[in-house]
Amino acid sequence: MVPADDAAMHAWALIAIEFVIARWCASVLHEGAHILSAAVLGFPREALTLSNLRSALFSREVAVKGLPSRAAAVVRHSGWLASFALAVVAGVMGGEHGAAWRLAVYVTSLEAASSDLLGIGAGPGEEAWRFRCGNFGILLLDPEYRAQALSILRTMVRVTMMRGAQSGGVVHYAPLADKKGAKGAAGVVGIRSRVVNGKRTDLSKLVAEKVGRDAKAALEPFCPTARKHGSLEGPLFFAGHTRFATTSKATMDGTHPHQWTPPAIFPIWSKVPGQQWQCAPRSVEVFICHNGDLDSFEVGGRDFALDAVMDWIERATHVPRPSSVDSAGVAGLIDLLRTKGSWFHSMRFGYLFGPKRTTLSYSIPEESSFQAFAEAAEDIFRRAIPQDSTVAGVPFSGGRHDNLRVTLVEGLFEKLSTCHCDSRLRTLRAAAPDASPISLNELEANPPPPRGAPPPLSSCSACVARRAGLLVDNGQLRPMVEAGIDGFFDQDLLAATRLLLAGAKGSFGLCINSSLDASRQVVVAARGQTLSIAFYPRSGILLWGSEQAAVKAAMQVHGSDVEDQDQNAVRLDLDDLGGEVCLIDWGSPELGLPTNIMVEETVVVEEDEGDGTPLAAGDFKDRSESQHNKHFKTVVQDRGSQIEMELWAAPRRHQLGCVRALGLPQRASVMGGKATVTLVQESLGKRAVFRKRMVHLAGNPLILPLPPAVPDAVGADIADIPAAMARIQDDWDSGNSFNRLTAWTLGRALCDRLRRIQNRTHDGSVDILITGCEVSLWLGEQFASDLSQVFPALNIKVISSNKLLGLLGQDFPIPQSGHQLHEGSWNLDSTICIVISHSGGTFGPLAVSNLLQAVTKNIFVVASEWDTQIGKQLRQMRSAENLWEIKSFIFSTFVGIRPAEPCTVSVAATHQLLTQILLYLMQKIQLEKLDSASGGDYLPDDCLQLDHQNHANITAIEEIVGYKKDGTVAATDTSRDLRATGARWGQHVLEGVHSWVLSFIYIFATVISGYPLCLGIAKAAGLNPDLNNGSHVLLFLDSVLYMFCAQWTCLLLRIVQRRPLRHRMTARPIVIGDIPWVAQSLEAYVSKLFACAYSASSVNVWSANPADHLVHRHTHRVVRGGLVACGRPDGRLIALTSAENAVCLSVNQASSIQSLGSTCESITIGHNPYKLPLTKHAIFLNGSRKMFLSEYALVRNDEEAMRAPKARKGKHWDMLSGLSSGALMGEYSNMKKVSKEENLPLVQGRQTRSRAGSHLAKVSEMEEGVAASPVVAVAASRQAVSGVGLYDAESELVIEALGLSQLSNRKGELNSAKRKKLLNYPYLGAFQDHSTHEQYYGEKMQQDSGNDAPVDRLIELQVISMRLYETRIASLQRCVAFMVLFHQMGKNVADFWSYVSFGLLGYDMSRTHSIMRIATTASPVSGAEVRARTLELARGRQIHKAMATLRKAVHRRRSLSTIS
Fold this sequence. Notes:
8-stranded antiparallel sheet; 31 strands; 45% helix
């Protein structure tokens, strides 16, 4: 018998063993759920690994790498759900035995919930591989930084996605094994990774996951892909593209990189310096990434449409088109043009481009014919190369008549023109009746064809050529032979790209690479599409991208501090207007040249004219043949940037019909000699200023850093609004900034036009033209309205950039139907053009800035930073007539790149900067005594008041957004009220989803439990569920509950949340009302916030001007529960009382439309603290301003209010806050009546203006031109632009000389008194003494009037000031307030989906479905025609200028001859 103690111990041991086994089984089930879910989701390779199997069995953890975020969330949650299900099963089964099993299962489920659900104890996750419209690429020359590739590309794509990201892809290369398995013996093969983006998916993640599975061969040598292909040694590059579809849907076949011809093995010839010619089999394929559009292609001097070209490529390559998009045609053309080293491709090239063609609809031989030509040429080439004693194909200067080429041309021409096959055999096959007998051996070697079969074709090269239509008599054979031989030696990537651009019509941002050149070369090109290249010598990294900002991605490779950055990092912007091609070559002898690339020996001869002058390109043509084969260069070195530049002699012009002279190439040694860059410009050449084109990236105050990635980009932008406005304000007040310099340039141009009006010499042209797109255009329209308010005599126009391009930038103008505008409407000669573009790269404004340079030099841009594409174009406008003059044409808001598509901080900053410009021009015109010419009747006090309000505006904005300008959180009652209202409207939008969730819970609980509500209550009350006792009635009631489940759960929600019960249960429409620029901007803003929202929580957004057409356009949209948000002008100001009254009337009319006793839910935001009776809520903004004289007239007896006007205290302030706009209008009407009844002497407006503005006389004594000279910016400009490239070192002398010239007399003697007065003159300093001490606006004016003028007359003098306060200050505050409200509304909706789905249904509200923050694609006008028109106008202007110069010279000569 076993003792009790031993039995107990034995039982505990069994329980422990049972627990351990159960614990192990539960853990294996848990980890197996992770692995199984990953495999089911499509990642079996990553999940079903031996390491995971071992870990699941023994380590209780698995690692499934490379998963997308949503898939990772599913895999993570599957573990704890499986453990929880097992625990439920164990609990339900129960039983006397199995307590240890249940305990083990419970422990496992608890551990799983803590790790998988709550994240407790979870290790750091693997960093996602992310890539993010436009071209982008990276070249890593230093293997040490290969690990940085993914991080850099992630940053580049994040920026490039702003151009559009409906689909994207990346290509890189890996070694290809031959038949024997030798890695790299057959060259390299392209690995292309492409994905199509969904509505809410992140393209960067999708591309990353695809590349992570396909591109590991170059990064992880031991992965399965690496075992298949191997790792590419030496430098590594990735070329990618994100696409915004223009000519087709966003499908996989239309996604870049594009390839026309699949890879195939061809014999490729190459020659390394010091070695003999070599031939080896190589894989041949071409990939291209293309921004822009291909409209047509020129062959034989004729343009052919894209469809005809695509059909021609299909027949030439014998490969069907892989896609209908135009970019696929670019890939096909490169397949035909890149022929160097391949006899097959060269002979095909010669056949297609050598003979003269008038049509593309001709028969093209089969591939076997081209193969026959290639074999014939290769046979002659093999026999000729041992006797070759010349240097073949010297780059850019190789002689056409070198011995090898001559031998090949003559030998191949003879072989193709002379038949070498047996004539008797030909006769036999042709069944000729006069054929002589043939021998038995010949008959056995060439048996006759079967009866009825067509006679076989001869394989003789001459016969093949004859069948192809190449005859000696028609002169087609020799051009084909010559073009084919030239293609074999010359048609590398650079030459192919040049020929493509020479014949193509369209806009192009290109990245072209080939498997034959992947280990050495890549070509990028720009024409009509921007492209920049950045060089980082320290880390050996070279980046290129369509976005200038994208190539900053490697700035922080060595650290985030400025000291850690690559101090020699520079950027080159390709000439997208004139067209430029760039060959990046890293195959220098120091790196070891690849054997699969043809490299020709180069003879370098430095030669001059005998006086040290480098040989000119034009002199090259007159050299003898022996000199023609020499290679001339001029070397310029810049050791600071590690750049060595060579200016190469002009290339030999190819004798093909589609080739034009494409400019003088430049070659530069970069990256400390590790690579070379060869530049070829099509037109508008800048070959003499290569070094000056380089822009320094490190330590450059004009280059803003990239913004960090944040979860809520829209919220971060809103929080940054006070800081952005403060930066603009501080920069302007400093008096020595580039914004002030640009304002001075603008002011001078405006004063010149006003003097023409004053002198009656004005030609009737437009004085100021303001243009932009979307939000920028709406801001420009308001700015134009304010300019017209203060300068009514000026001819000010505002127009969309697309309309302007449609009229002036097309060969066939687009009629602007519905607008009083046509080609001859406006004279734009010397017009001041202000282009507003936040990004500085939107196609419309960028094209306008180029187009208008032919008619005016006064083009200014308002952008987010100095370093933009438009800024680059405008910086090139240097005055050639006066070298002692510096001008700046760029205004910057300093907010930099903002990836969020709903615009917030960019709108506020641009509006703020335009306010500063308006203030400056108002003051400038008065100080120049041109106010009468401008027609302006504003006072100096108007400038003072607007300036004071502008400074106080920052405090008001801080109160609205709840953030200080230093970035600290400072929640206020106003900000909390705005966010609470936004949250409430978010509940309105989400109520349908909440109702669906509650219905699901109700149905799930009642059906699973078997207790519907009514029947369950009956059972709980003890009623018999027998149908005979009336239970069917209860079941009927439960059916009704199920039928209307969504409705009663929605009502229940409204009761709990205290929201109106009678609102419609449907999607909520939103109508926004305010002045035009605010309403339109907010409509776009809210629409983009909800662009990716699910249909169950989406909204419809409309906008209108409540003082105009809101009632007419949108009252029919007013339904129960509709949301109406209107901004109200401050009706306490007499100039705005009627405006607020009109707004209130519109809101009341909309809110009065009722159904079932309910109406829309309307709110108002404004400064007048009066709530409309029919509105749900009103939010009041403080504004942080002083009282105007009209307000003072109502509360002047309230001493308490006068002692603390900013505190808004006192019974009269309370009285104002309780008055509606109608009551205020009555008060002001009474004031006017009292003034008239008192019959006081009236003071005329001009006399009052003279008295009120007596202090202006002091300032007007200052000399002309002193008001805003740029000399105050000299100190800062020296530090900012020295060696930067935006302004080269010569500009310092220009700036300094300008300062002297502006302050000197005609003899050049410096006027020290004027100089001292100028340098000490601050902005508005002459006016600020009394404005800051006034208790109310107009106090000084009232004192100057001597109290002998009626108050109503003095109030009228402030009308302009009050209107400017509304348009420049108050409207901005309302706009920002609405942004805060709608952001909270959108954020609550987005957060809900992410929360309830564990992140699976989350979306980023900072982006839209189109993902087009910057519209860089030519739309709706053609980019090719815009560029052609721009160049045509530029040439016309040059011709006009040359003719004017000649006329002056002739006139001068005639004058001299007359005198003599």
